[in-house]
Amino acid sequence: MHRYLVGGAVRDRLLKIDVYDRDWVVVGATPEELVQQGYVAVGKEFPVFLHPKTKEEHALARTERKVGAGYTGFECYFAPDVTLEEDLLRRDLTINAMAQDPDGTLIDPYRGQQDLNDRVLRHVSDAFIEDPLRVLRVARFAAKLNHLGFTIADETLALMRTIAQSGELAHLTPERVWQEWQKSLSTSDPQVFIEVLRECGALKVVLPELDQLFGVPQPEKWHPEIDTGVHTILVAKQAALLSDSLPVRFAAQVHDLGKGITPQSEWPSHKMHCHTGLKLIKALCERVRVPNEYRDLALMVCEQHSNIHRAAELRSETKLKILNKLDVWRKPERLNDILLCCMADSLGRTGYENYEYSQKGIFETAYQASLSVNVQDIIQDGFKGAAIREEMEKRRVEAIEKTK
Length: 404
Ligand code: ATP
Ligand code: MG
Description:
CATH superfamily of the domain at 1-110: Beta Polymerase, domain 2
Order of helices and strands: EHEHEEEEEHEEHEHEHHHHHHHHHHHHHH
Bound molecules: adenosine-5'-triphosphate, magnesium ion
CATH topology of the domain at 1-110: Beta Polymerase, domain 2
Number of strands: 11
Structural class: alpha+beta
Number of helices: 19
CATH class of the domain at 1-110: Alpha Beta
Mean pLDDT: 95
Low-confidence stretches: none
Largest sheet: 7 strands, mixed
Radius of gyration: 26 Å
Helix content: 40-55%
Distance between the termini: 74 Å
């Protein structure tokens, strides 16, 4: 039996970028042989095993045949006679279909290295269309490798369009959609994930709430880019420049969903979007099974971003009310996250990329001033029960007022 390093580890090593996980393929073995050697079987649908020591994934070389709908509609064939080349043929992109044997020799039957050098994401074979997940994977790799100059081959994009039109994307499980979306959030260009899905017609199936922002106008005075979808892409990009936090990046992407359902008669104004966006975010997060940490931040940014943008005009009472709503007393790290989302929103407008977002400083100052109010002092001054809270609010407002 032979063991080869495959997939992302080979690709990323050639690109000289960090390798996070290593996947292996085993040729010429049976499941029984691997189990005898101490490997632990983990695959439900495919013959995948964990190495006894490293716990890295080892898959038996296999071929696949489409038999039903969606990601799981495959019949796979594995036996000691399946060759490495046959296994590599079922993979999604040529740059993911290279293997490396233990002495370091590259096995590259589908010209992955050439495409790596040319910075092209290209499908391995026409069997690409058999798995709709590949549309999301390619969009994610486009985001991950965008900074290196990678683009998608025209023929591959055409196949992605074919998949999007086939209706197969509807069979993807929410977990799969979220897994790829979340991975895209940790790349240096998360906005590319959305752009690629839109370009191939997959966005309206997978994330229609984002798709319907395209074509919706905003007031040109504030938004020279006008189109809400274009704005969202710019905000997503700015958020990734400002913060490594995935919930921050997510919240930035969905903060304007409400604008997608403003009645056309009100365009380009979107007076209610901070409110109407909330139910869209809730529904989206439920459908795609977005973790609560992401959802909660996104809801707060959606609800408060217009208020925060108006920081300079707000009364001290209002600033405190907003801080209370954000619950920054119990979750202090939240303030910075929300302010970064708002800043990304502001800088994510054509011509505003270097805008000095003074609103952030105003709220930070208000928060620090509020913190200077000490509850022990209030108790010592004789306040009791509910009056403590009331006095606390009063002193906080006074403290914020003094910072003006
Ligand atoms: P990374 O681990 O950096 O996200 P990767 O390319 O290693 O990227 P994995 O999901 O770990 O991605 O999969 C390992 C390899 O398995 C891929 O490189 C690819 O060759 C193959 N692969 C994974 N999922 C699919 C799929 N849906 N269709 C075709 N090939 C796939
Ligand atoms: Mg991998």
